[in-house]
């Protein structure tokens, strides 16, 4: 069970498998840099971002730092891992003060008074039980700075298919699907990458199941657009979905193989 550490010293959580590859989280990085661009630029102090559970190698933290630094040059990215050997290995990639690594878990240990504008936890909760997700979300969101964002979700081994939920201090806000469109036969193939809170809810009677059903139907109806490229087919699919589902993005994001909708439209029942 996910709980706060009583001592405040022992990391909260369990060691992940650690699977990682360069550019695995590029799609998430791109979305984060776009979504948080304004808060990053307006932050009075150098903003802090956390890559939680970066795995056996620190590629995702290194890449997140590079992409956020293009938006705000003095951003601070902290890679946090519960496994000490992984933290020790990562030190060779540290670039103080911009990029650093430390041991920790869901308690998100940072310097005194520091509150992150971003916590990204990719492929971390996948190994936990669904019943543990709410407590993990609550603990992580409690560490956010005002206006901060928690991004939690999963992806395949090389990042071609990803789904993530974005949460603010008040709770979940949106769900995003992102894919390399070449080779995608139907959008529901992304179901295997749903975050832990939803992956067992893809069954009749649940909103996420209804959404994926409509996603596939809109994709099939947009088949004629494939003559103009798979990107145009995805855009046409999103336009059709927008008639019945509360999408929060538009064509500029759809062109990238993304689609985001409000969380309350797909939240689990019961």
From TrEMBL:
Gene Ontology biological-process annotations: methylation
Single Gene Ontology MF annotation: methyltransferase activity
Nucleotide-binding as UniProt keyword: no
Keywords for the protein's UniProt record, in alphabetical order: Methyltransferase, Transferase
InterPro entries documented for this protein: SAM-dependent_MTases_sf
Location of the region described as Disordered in the Swiss-Prot/TrEMBL record: 1-22
Name of this protein: Class I SAM-dependent methyltransferase
Organism: Streptacidiphilus monticola
């Amino acid at each position: 069970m996910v709980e706060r550490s009583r001592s405040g010293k022992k990391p909260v959580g369990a060691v992940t498998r650690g699977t990682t590859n360069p550019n695995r989280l590029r799609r998430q990085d791109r979305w984060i840099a776009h979504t948080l661009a304004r808060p990053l630029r307006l932050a009075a102090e150098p903003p802090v971002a956390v890559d939680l559970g970066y795995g056996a190698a620190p590629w995702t933290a290194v890449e997140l730092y590079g992409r956020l630094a293009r938006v705000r040059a003095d951003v601070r990215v902290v890679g946090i891992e519960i496994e000490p050997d992984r933290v020790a290995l990562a030190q060779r990639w540290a670039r103080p003060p911009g990029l650093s690594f430390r041991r920790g878990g869901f308690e998100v240990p940072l310097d005194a008074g520091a509150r992150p504008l971003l916590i990204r936890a990719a492929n971390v909760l996948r190994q936990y039980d669904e019943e543990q997700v709410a407590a993990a979300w609550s603990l992580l969101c409690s560490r956010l700075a005002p206006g901060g964002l928690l991004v939690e979700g999963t992806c395949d081994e090389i990042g071609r298919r990803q789904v993530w939920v974005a949460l603010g201090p008040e709770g979940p806000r949106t769900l995003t699907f992102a894919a390399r469109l070449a080779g995608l036969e139907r959008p529901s193939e992304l179901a295997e990458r749903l975050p832990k809170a939803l992956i067992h809810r893809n069954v009749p009677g649940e909103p996420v199941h209804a959404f994926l059903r409509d996603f596939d139907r809109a994709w099939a109806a947009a088949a004629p657009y494939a003559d103009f490229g798979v990107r145009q087919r995805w855009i046409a699919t999103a336009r059709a979905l927008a008639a019945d589902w509360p999408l929060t993005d538009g064509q500029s994001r759809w062109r990238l193989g993304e689609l985001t909708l409000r969380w309350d439209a797909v939240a689990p029942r019961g």
